């Protein structure tokens, strides 16, 4: 198996300095064995290990996904993170760790798109890391279905997979509000209703990155007026 330290060093150099747009332009899985333009291909290819080969395919999927971002932009944004006191890791090493945890190339492609969103300043680096974690641990069909949808609130029974993945969270706001109305004899007990499921902040961010029709991202910082009334109402 290829030396991890060597792979990390070469990968970091690749994402910082390589002209990926030209190198990756005509790449396909069938020509991996004949590629010589990227040092990381030569390094991993020489081992003959199937795990290394599959890992290489994921790395190339990621590089292909960021190829349209200029190397100068990649270098500037990555340097900014590595000089920050908020993060104590090398970006390239962190990316390799995340790529390795993805169980297929399709997830790696999603990961690359999310990283491009960071490089383009659409999201912050911390948001990228959270999105990356969500991408790698969510079942791919659930992720794809979620990204194509636009609903921010669902009945609990309709959001079981999204709740389990952390894309939605249990929302008690309406139930609490109706319970207050019930106590004040404004509604019947049967009208209280069950809690629902509301999209999480990471869910909003993922849709913002991948769904051009989604408009809920900028609602993340908006207070819930109903919940505020419940929490701040005067005591009687």
User: How many runs of DSSP E, i.e. beta strands?
Assistant: 3
Beta content comes to under 5%
Largest β sheet strand count, sense and barrel closure: 3 strands, antiparallel
Rg from Cα:
23 Å
Structural class: mainly alpha
Model description:
The chain is mainly α and 236 residues long. Helix content is 58%, strand content 5%. It contains 13 helices and three strands; from the N terminus they run H-H-H-H-H-H-H-H-H-E-H-E-H-E-H-H. It has helices at residues 4-17, 20-23, 39-45, 50-65, 71-83, 91-101, 105-119, 125-137, 140-148, 160-165, 173-183, 201-210, 225-232, and strands at residues 153-155, 168-171, 196-199. The termini are far apart. The model is unreliable at 222-236 (pLDDT under 50).
SSE layout and pairings?
Layout: H1 4-17, H2 20-23, H3 39-45, H4 50-65, H5 71-83, H6 91-101, H7 105-119, H8 125-137, H9 140-148, E1 153-155, H10 160-165, E2 168-171, H11 173-183, E3 196-199, H12 201-210, H13 225-232
Antiparallel strand pairs: 1-3, 2-3
Helix pairs in contact: 1-3, 1-6, 4-7, 7-8, 8-12
Describe the structure concisely.
With 236 residues, this protein is mostly helical. It is built from 13 helices and 3 strands. The model is unreliable at 222-236 (pLDDT under 50).
């Amino acid at each position: 198996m290829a030396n991890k330290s060597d792979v990390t060093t070469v990968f970091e150099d690749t994402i910082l300095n390589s002209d990926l747009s030209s190198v990756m332009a005509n790449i396909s899985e069938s020509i991996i064995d004949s590629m010589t333009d990227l040092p990381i291909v030569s390094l991993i290819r020489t081992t003959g290990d199937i795990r290394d080969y599959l890992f290489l395919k994921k790395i190339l999927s990621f590089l292909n996904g960021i190829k349209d971002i200029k190397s100068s932009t990649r270098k500037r944004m990555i340097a900014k993170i590595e000089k920050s006191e908020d993060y104590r890791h090398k970006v390239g090493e962190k990316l390799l760790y995340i790529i390795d945890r993805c169980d297929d190339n399709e997830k790696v492609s999603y990961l690359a798109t999310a990283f491009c969103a960071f490089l383009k300043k659409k999201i912050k680096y911390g948001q990228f890391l959270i999105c990356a974690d969500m991408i790698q641990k969510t079942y791919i069909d659930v992720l794809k279905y979620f990204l194509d949808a636009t609903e921010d609130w669902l009945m609990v029974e309709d959001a079981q997979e999204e709740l389990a993945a952390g894309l939605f969270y249990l929302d008690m706001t309406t139930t609490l509000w109706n319970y207050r109305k019930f106590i004040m004899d404004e509604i019947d007990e049967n009208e209280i209703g069950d809690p629902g499921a509301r999209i999480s902040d990471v869910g909003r961010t993922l849709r913002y990155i991948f769904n051009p029709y989604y408009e809920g991202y900028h609602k993340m910082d908006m207070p819930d007026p109903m919940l505020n009334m419940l929490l701040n109402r005067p005591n009687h």
